[in-house]
Structure formats: structure tokens, C-alpha cells
Amino acid sequence: MSDLSIVVTHAGAREERTVTTGTRAWELYADDADVIAARVNGVLCDLAHELRDGDEVEGVAIDSKHGRDILRHSTAHVMAQAVQQLWPDARLGIGPPIENGFYYDFDVETPFHPDDLDKIETAMRKIIKEGQRFSRRPVADAEALAELKDEPYKLELIGLKGSGHGEDAAEGANVEVGGSADGELTIYDNLRRDGNLAWKDLCRGPHLPTTKRIPAFKLMRTAAAYWRGDEKNKQLQRIYGTAWESKDALAAYLAQIAEAEKRDHRKLGRELDLYSFPEELGPGLVVFHPKGGVIRRVMEDYVRRRHIEEGFSYVSTPHISKDGLFHTSGHLPYYADTMYPPMELEGARYQLKAMSCPMHNLIYQSRGRSYRELPLRLFEFGGVYRYEKSGVVGGLTRVRGLTQDDSHSYVTPEQAADEIKHLLNFCLGLFRDFGLEDFYLELSTRGDTPKDKFQGSEEDWATAEAILQQAADESGLELVPDPGGAVFYGPKISIQAKDAIGRTWQLSTVQYDFGQPAGFGLEYVAADGSHQQPVMIHSAKFGSIERFIGVLVEHYAGAFPPWLSPVQVQGIPIAERHVAYLEDVAKQMSERGLRVEIDDSDDRMQKKIRNAQLQKVPFMVIAGDQDMEARAVSFRYRDGRQDNGVPVSEAVERVAAAVASREQV
Ligand SMILES: [Zn+2]
Ligand SMILES: [Zn+2]
Asked: What are the tens digits of pLDDT across the range 100-158?
């Protein structure tokens, strides 16, 4: 037997190895139970993949991103096998991994009942116990068509693949037919220990070596879904599930979901009377009620002040513009899909603004600029409108009308690196003030996306990507590459923040733009008198005010720190005769800029306390006869602690201090 030279990589280290012909990837990882697949020359493969001379091999751990995808997709196979055991007439749609889980679509006579999930889970456990092997088998198209003659949806996918539309067949369909460079189809057989075929599915793979390698899973819910996402097609029944590398990881995920449901900002928005989404307005459009309005105003005041402190000038621009402006900026045609359709007026076409940058460019251009003015920083709360599909709008996190804290720094090319560092630090400082502490960065570059999707020269991109990379490295934060994620006009850094229950939200973006300054012909007069083109750096701190408020509501579970709380102090008179006294206390607090409400309803004191707790008010001041005599109040905290006989002046100071420090209480 001849030998093969291969390279085994692990955590960036490379090790040259000699193995015998016929060696399969799993043999390299026989004593590493966490490795469930291999990346061979950059391509994800089953562990049963046979190695060739010169291969570069890396193990894929079950708890890595790709490892989890493979685990979840393999679990989808097990679920489909179980469903076809229980409902032999069920026909298969597609079954891709998704964020935190997987689904599989089925064509069944009657929709699944929630109780069916238990039955399916029981059947899945049996399949997992059997330790069925996932065995890859390449097939010619004709063979696949014959073998899958009873699976009309798979046949359709094979047909689409033949026409070169495999990738477009359906979201997630390339799990079945896409990907393979030579267009080869593969069927995965699930083989029992005795070698008998238990089940099979058309699939590109890879999968776990055996069903036994599924440590923990749970089926979550069912939903209806049109075949290939098209409402003209038949409605299939989708089952969602999740799978994890350990029972603990599954338990942690389920706990996080339960906690997230309790914190759902749509639910809390109703309960706390913050905002609503009237149907009369249309999908994705929100109105803020007085209490939500307080949060918004406090946030905006703070953000406006911080921008001015960081060298920005506050400007204002309209909500609509003639469409030519968006052609000059390059947003049309690149961005047309996400803009509202144009309206005609006096022979011109107008568009709703989807971003403020083009209008800021007009402010820059309104007169000649000298290098002495740079960096020139413009900032506004821009009301912008973006067309999101009605299926994806939901709550404050995906809206069609939003307020962007959109700011632009115009700098000389030499100033760009410092400005980006300045903006990153600015953003991080803002988030810390809003109680977010845990961040990482994502650097979006062009990757392998076709170059015609982007403006600018090779050199522009190389410079910009290097500057962002350096700024990100210097931040000391974890940096995750996002090749292919760049916007058409330049690369960007995004700040991702973790909330109180460990979920990640993308907040700020800092984008380097050479396209718009060129498109608008922006210039400044340099020190040597020559005319030069500035670099434009876009930075949205919160992305949108609406979305950020949604994130904050969930992060704090509605219990805002005092500085953001719509009502900071609830006054609770024990009896009617204490109302006037509390009104005087409230007046003293209001004079200090604090927000106080008095509950003068007929409810008993305990009920009033309970109501204030439900409204998550940070402080209560309770007054009865003794308090009135002593010019004092009973001072009650959110957690139920209560100090009796606190002099009024001290109560005012306690609240004022908590507000000023922006602390959580
Ligand atoms: Zn598969
Ligand atoms: Zn912009």
C-alpha cells in the first residue's frame, strides 16, 4: 500500500502527516469524540470521506457553527424518517439547518397536531438509539429520478438543478441539490447496524457519522409553509426543531427562549403602555405612546448631546427627495428593492428617503470646503422608510418607518483611520451608558461576491479594508470576519452586543465609503491648494432608534434604569388625606427634573404597590399620617426593600443621584 502526504490543521497549527491510501477522515479523529465532520481543502465533508494525496484536513467540532449546522441538519433527517414511519404518505419538502435549529417541510393530508410532536420525538429517540449510519452514495440524475419517483418535491428540485436553477429552487434547497462543484447528486442512506436500509434522502450532506451522535434535541412547533416560499404553490406543514451538542446546551437554549418570551418587547410594550402598531397605519409602522415617548425623548436628548460632544453638528433634512439624488448617491439602482415606490408630482418622481447620506452630501456641497474644516461631522435623527416584506416585519426590530441616528464624517484619506477608531470608541461608550457591556466586532468585506456588485477600484477596497481591519484589531475586541457582507459602496465594521440573556444584536455600523464622494464630486481644498476628494464615513450608532428601544425593553425586561424609566417615582398615599402632601413631595421632585406620578385611585395601598411593581417603576414613595408629621416618606425600591421615615429632601436626593449616575437599581 502506498502512502499519502496530508496536512492536518488545528487551531491555526499545521502538521504534516503520512497516512496509508484508503485512510478516511474519521481515522484522524478516532480519539476526539467532539469532531463530527471534516473540512477537506476548505470543503465540509463526512468523516467517512476518503483522503487523497496533498489534502489539507481540519476537524469540525460539534459545538462549532458548522458543526451545529451539521448536527441540526442530521437531526432533520431523523425527524423526516420518524414522520414517514408514522405517516407513510407524508411527502418530503426540504430540511435545512437554520439559526438555533432546523426544520423539515412535509406534504401531509392533515396538518400536524401539537401532540404529534411527542409521538415524533419518541420515534426519533428510537432511531437515534439504533445508531444508523449516514452513508453517502453518488447517483446519476436518471437513477435519482427513478429512486425518488414517490417524492414529487425532490423530483422538482432535481429538475431545477438540471436547468441551472438549483440555487434558486427554494430557500434552503441547496442542502438537497446545490453546492457540489460537478453538479453530482447524492443520496444518503440511513443504514442500520446490520447493514439494512432504514431510510434515504436526496441530500448534498455532510451529516453526522451516525444517528447516535445526536446528543440532545427537541421539536419546537409546527407551521404552514408554501412550497418554495411561493403562495401559488401547495401549502406544506413545517416542523421546527432544535439540536445541541449537549443536554446542558439544550437546556440553556430552552431557558433562554422561555426568558425571551417573558421579555418580548411587543408584549411588554402593551403591558407598559409604551407603543403600538395600529393596523390602520399598515405593517411595520409604530406609534409611541406618552410613556414610550419619554424613553425615546430621553434617549434622543442624550444621543444628541453626546454627538455634539464628539464633534458632530446637528442637521436636519426632509423625508422625500427627487429620485435623481438617489441615482447620484448610487442607492438607485443598487438599493431599489428596499425603497418605497416613487410618487409623481409636477412632472418629477419623488422617493421617500431610505437613508440620509445623500442629503448630508448636499450640505457638504453647499459651499467650498477647506482641509481645515475636516473632519466635518454631520448628524441627524433621520426619519427613513424601507420596504421590508410584510412577512418579516415584526415589533420594533423590523419596521418600515424608522429613525436612524445617521451620521457622516467627511475626512481626508489620512484622517480616516483615526476617525474610525474615534467612532468605534464613541459607539462603545454609548452602549455602556445604556447598560450593554459585552461586545464583539464583525468586519464585512467583499469576499467572493462578484465585483460588479460594488463601486470603487481594487485599490480603494484594499485601502479601506486594511484601515478597518487595523481599527478593529486595535479595539482589542473579538473580531469575526464576514466575507461577502460588505455594502456596495464600501466595507464596514459592525458592533454586535450581547444582551442580559446572552442574545446577540447587531447595533452600530461604521462604513467606509469612497463611492458617494466620487458620485457627488465632493471636494476640499488641500493645504497645497489642490482639490481633493474626501472619504465619507457613515456611522449609525443604534441603527434605528425604534429597534434599539425594542432591544432595551428586552434587555431590561421592561425594568428600565431610573434615567430611562417613563415614571421614576410612584407616589402612593395611604389614604385620601395624604394626597395633597404627596403632591407637594412630587412638586419638589419635578423641580429637579424627575418624573413622578401619584396614584390617587380608590385602590388600597397594597394594590397600589402591586400596580407600581407591574409597571416596573424604580422607586415608590409612600405617605401616611406619621410621614406627614415628620416631613418624611417611606421609600420603597423595586426589589421590595423599604426604608421608613426617610426625610423628603433625602428621598429627592436618592432618586436624583440614581438618575444622574444612569445606574440600574
Ligand atoms: Zn442531509
Ligand atoms: Zn449614511
From this structure: 999 999 999 999 999 999 999 999 999 999 999 999 999 998 999 999 999 999 999 98
Q: Considering just the CA atoms, what is the radius of gyration of the chain in Å? A: 30
pLDDT digits (tens, 9 = 90+) for 584-614: 999 999 999 999 999 999 999 999 999 999 9
Compute the distance between CA of residue 32 and CA of residue 454 in angstroms, rounded to an integer.
Answer: 43
Strands 531-532 and 524-525: antiparallel
Cα gap 339→400, rounded to integer Å: 10
Query: Considering only 240-244, 448-452, 634-638, which range has the smallest mean pLDDT?
Result: 448-452
Ligand 1 centre from 235 Cα, in Å? 22
The pLDDT of residue 162: 57
Residue-range domains of the chain with CATH? 3-61 (3.10.20.30), 66-259 (3.30.980.10), 271-555 (3.30.930.10), 562-661 (3.40.50.800)
CA of 205 to the centre of ligand 1 (A): 5
Q: What grid cell was written down for 244?
A: 445541541
Residue 365: half-sphere exposure toward Cβ, Cα within 13 Å = 15
Contact criterion met (CB below 8 Å) for 360 and 381: no
- In this prediction, residue 276 has a pLDDT band, given cuts at 50, 70 and 90, of very high
Quick check: 214 and 242 in contact, CB under 8 A?
no
CA of 489 to the centre of ligand 1 (A): 37
Quickly tell me which residue has 410594550 as its cell: 269
Q: Which three cell numbers stand for residue 400?
A: 418600515
Phi-psi region at 52: left, alpha or beta (left = phi > 0; alpha = psi -120 to 50): beta
**Quick one: pLDDT at residue 179?**
46
Distance from residue 137's CA to the centre of ligand 2 (Å): 50
Cα 583 to Cα 645: distance, rounded to the nearest angstrom:
18
Interval 167-191 mean pLDDT:
70
**Residues 502-508: what's their mean pLDDT?**
89
List, as one string, the DSSP characters of 179-197. --TT--EEEEEEE-TTS-E
Q: Which ligand is nearest to the CA of 537?
A: 2
Look at residue 172 in the predicted model and tell me its pLDDT.
61
pLDDT, position 171: 57
Q: Which ligand is nearest to the CA of 96?
A: 1
Instruction: Indicate which ligand has the atom closest to the C-alpha of 179.
Output: 1
DSSP reduced 3-state for 459: helix
Distances (CA, A) of 542 to 392, 404, 494, 508: 20, 8, 11, 5
**Which positions are catalytic?**
357, 386, 404, 406, 408, 492, 538
Give the count of beta carbons closer than 10 Å to the beta carbon of residue 233. 14
DSSP string, 617-642: -SEEEEE-HHHHHHTEEEEEETTS-E
In the reported structure, the alpha carbon of residue 297 is separated from the centroid of ligand 2 by a whole-number distance in angstroms of: 23
Look up residue 461 and give its three cell numbers: 477596497
Confidence of residue 456 (pLDDT cuts 50, 70, 90): confident
What pLDDT, on the 0 to 100 scale, is given for residue 34?
A: 94
Interval between CA 94 and ligand 1 midpoint (Å): 9
Cross-strand bridge partners of residue 406: 380, 540
Q: What are phi and psi of 504, to 5 degrees?
A: -105, 135
Ligand approaching nearest to the C-alpha of 70: 1
SS3 379: strand
On whether the CB atoms of residues 404 and 379 are closer than 8 A, the answer is: no
Which of 374, 481, 365 is closest to 418 using CA atoms?
374
